[in-house]
Every structure is written in structure tokens, then in C-alpha cells.
Amino acid sequence: MSGVNPFVIVGGGLAAGTAVEALRERGYDGRLLVIGDERERPYIRPPLSKGYLLGKEDRESIYVHPENWYADHDVDLLLGTTVRTVDPRAALVELEGGRRIAYARLLLATGSTPRRLPVPGADLENVLYLRRVGDSDRLKAAFTEGARIVVIGGGWIGLETAAAARLAGSEVTVLEHSELPLHKVLGREAAQVFAGLHTEHGVRLHPHAEVERITASDGRADGVLLADGTHLPADAVVVGVGITPNVRLAQEAGLEVRDGIVADEHLRTSAPDIYAAGDVANAYHPRYGRHLRVEHWANALHQPRTAAASMLGEHAVYDRLPYFYTDQYNLGMEYTGHTEPGGNDRVLFRGPTDNRQFIAFWMSGNRVVAGMSVNVWDVIDPIRALIESGAELDDAALTDPAVPLGSLLP
Q: Residue 113 in 3-state DSSP?
């Protein structure tokens, strides 16, 4: 396998760092090149809205590998470099500046970009988005005692940044498009847990908010004007309204693109010798019988291992259940599985939600399709096993804290 042309990975996040590690672990001894448009070596993004933003983790802790790991494993890093085009027929990538690099295999791990708010004022200096380590540094600088912070978007990023701002002593308002933060993701009862948590910590939740524009004075944002005429003063505005997969390279190269780069269960794209992993990959998931693009850390951690095996000609299938976690104030949560609006008919709870120590099960008929643990630890593996088993389960047993989850497995 150690031919002249390298295996090239485009992207500088967790997926890229994991991919080169997996290739070396699987015995690939050829040239490896990571091309990233940031000047940082590959790093992990969840701490940017969690431990690093809170000041609990130092900068070194965010990196996938220590600095010397890449030289020790003969991996070349081309950082602060943008790939301009990919030519699948010639098996080349062309860099900004014109340099062309031939590849033997190419992995696109180009990630995603925060969606911009389509209103006047969204690009003012102190309107902050979170994707890169520098963004997290800017948030940290803005979150000071008494600062007025308006967060637009009540999803995971919005709530995690709201929690960090409150813990720093800022005054925080969260603007949510629907009735409750996370309502669309979790359903009413579980979403109320997070709404109550933030309200208890002094966050003002503003439901059904329609942002008209971000107001300014002296070139800086000074507030948010809502469609109903409400004006919320702000020293900084945080926008967390979703992300867009970075598909430009794939699209211009003629690869199949549909809500991400379309890949099969082996993470092969529609072009020979080109693979995709992480946020950008809309990969076929055998368990669900459909393509699925998952925007969470676990995909960037595990998908590249399947991609690496496929790049080496081995038979590997990516069929892991989606997984994500959050830490907000004194609440820790883990979630696994997948359901969409209409994909389940009820949610069952094991333990009372009011003290925020419970397990929730999203049910389709008598089968668990997704599960969440809140401040209950070491249960995500049995929850995952219950989902994977497809077993018909009894509501009473599922909701009884005295019944060990493992005992429900067939």
C-alpha cells in the first residue's frame, strides 16, 4: 500500500485526527497528508462550548494528539491551507495558490459552518458564532460579570453557551423560535426539564421569538429587535441556529451531494477512491435503512475508523447508533439512538423529572428507538443494547427503577 501518492485527508477536526490514527493502527505505512484551513492541528470541538469555554480545560486538552504525535507517526500536516478544487478523474487536489497534489485515496472530513442569521446586523463585530477555538476565546472574553448576553437559538449550542455565560455572572436571555428550547429534538416533557434548569439559574427564556434585526451603535451590536417591537439591550449576541455541511468541494467535483456528501455504509462517496466522514457525511445507515447525517462528536470519532478500513480495501460498515452528550450547570446528559418528529409514539420516564435524575425512553410501539439519561450514570450501554436488540418491552418494567436495565435484554 505504500505507493507514491499519499492518502490525503481534507479537514482539521476530530475526524481528520482519528482517521490518520486509524490508518496507522491498521498497518498503513504509506504517506499521509492532512490539509486543514485552520492554523491549529486537529482538535475536538465539544469542549469549545463546554469545559474549555468554562475555563475548566486548558487549550492543550482540546487537541486530538500531542504536537509531536504527527511527526512520530510520519503524518504531514498542511495547516492554514485551503483546498480550492478536487479533481476525481485525475485524482488530484488543488490548493489555493495553485499547488496540485495527487492522492491514492481521499477522505473529505470538511465539517460544517454555523448558519448565519439572515437579518440586518448579523455580521456586526460582537455578534458571535461558535465553531472554532478562536470563537470560543471570543465568547469567553464576552462572558463577564454583569454583561448582557442575548443568545439567539435554544438548541444545544445555545443552551451550553447560555449556561457558560450565566456561570460567568452575565445576564442572559435565550430567544427560541418555538415554545420551548429543544422542543423539536426532545418533545415537550423532556424539553421542560432543560427550560426549568435554565430558568432556575436566572436565564430569561423568550419563546416564539422572531428576530427582526440586530441593532447597533458605533459599529457594534447593542441589542436585538424582535418582530413584536421588543428591544433587548445586549453587550454581545450569540447566534446558534444550526450548521451547514461544507459540501462546496464535493459539489464542484461532481460528487453526489444531498444534505451533506452522500456516502454508502462503507463511507465511500459516489466518486472512486473518495470517502467522507464526520458532520459532512450523509451516510447510508443499515439499521435505519436510509441515509443519515449526524452532527455530533461521536460520528467524528467513530466514522473515520470505518472510512480508514474501507480506504485500505477492508470490509467495514458504519452502523453505530448516534450518540451525544451535554453538560449544563449541574446537569449531565447522554443520549443515544435516533428518532424524528413522528418517529415515536410516546416517551417513557424512569424516575421523576422534577429532580433532574431520570432516564427517558422514546418508544415506537413496544420498542425503544432512543434513550436519554440525565444525571444517571453508567446506563448508556444497556440503553444502547436495548435499542439494538429491537426487543418488545413492557412499559412497567422500563419505567421501574428497581428493574435493572440489563435484565430486560432478550
A: strand
Q: 234 φ, ψ to 5°?
A: -150, 140
How far, rounded to the nearest angstrom, does the alpha carbon of residue 326 sit from its chain's CA centroid? 11
pLDDT tens string 114-144: 999 999 999 999 999 999 999 999 999 999 9
What is the identity of the amino acid at 15? A
Position 392: which residue type?
E
CA distance 63 to 51: 13
**Burial group, residue 124, by CB count within 10 angstroms (0-12, 13-18, 19+):** middle
CA angle, residues 248, 250, 256, in degrees to nearest 5: 120
> Smallest Cα–Cα separation from 124: which of 244, 241, 233, 236?
236
Closest CA to 155 of 305, 295, 364, 347: 295
Listed residue (254, 255, 250, 318) closest to 283, CA to CA = 318
Cell of 133: 477555538
C-alpha distances in Å from residue 197, one per residue of 24, 110, 165, 181: 44, 35, 14, 11
- Cα 117 from Cα 138, distance rounded (Å): 18
At which residue does the C-alpha cell 418488545 appear? 392
Q: Are 206 and 174 in contact (CB under 8 A)?
A: yes
DSSP string spanning 68-90? THHHHTTEEEE-S--EEEEETTT
Q: Which domains does the chain have, with CATH numbers?
A: 7-113+243-311 (3.50.50.60), 127-239 (3.50.50.60), 330-408 (3.30.390.30)
pLDDT, tens digit (0-9, with 9 covering 90-100), for 178-229: 999 999 999 999 999 999 999 999 999 999 999 999 999 999 999 999 999 9
Question: 21-69 pLDDT, tens per residue?
Answer: 999 999 999 999 999 999 999 999 999 999 999 999 999 999 999 999 9
Gap between the Cα atoms of 4 and 102, Å rounded: 9
What is the number of residues in the chain?
A: 410
Q: Are strands 32-35 and 7-10 parallel, antiparallel or unpaired?
A: parallel
Spatial distance between the Cα atoms of 42 and 77, rounded to a whole number of angstroms: 9
The whole-angstrom separation of Cα 197 and Cα 335 is: 18
In 56-203 the beta strands, taken as DSSP E runs, fall at: 75-78, 83-87, 92-95, 100-102, 105-108, 112-114, 127-128, 148-152, 171-175
pTM over 0.90: yes
Spatial CA neighbour of 17 closest among 82, 80, 86, 63: 63
Residue 315 DSSP one-character state: -
Please give the Cα distance from 361 to 190 (Å, whole number). Answer: 10
Q: Which amino acid does the sequence have at 317?
A: V
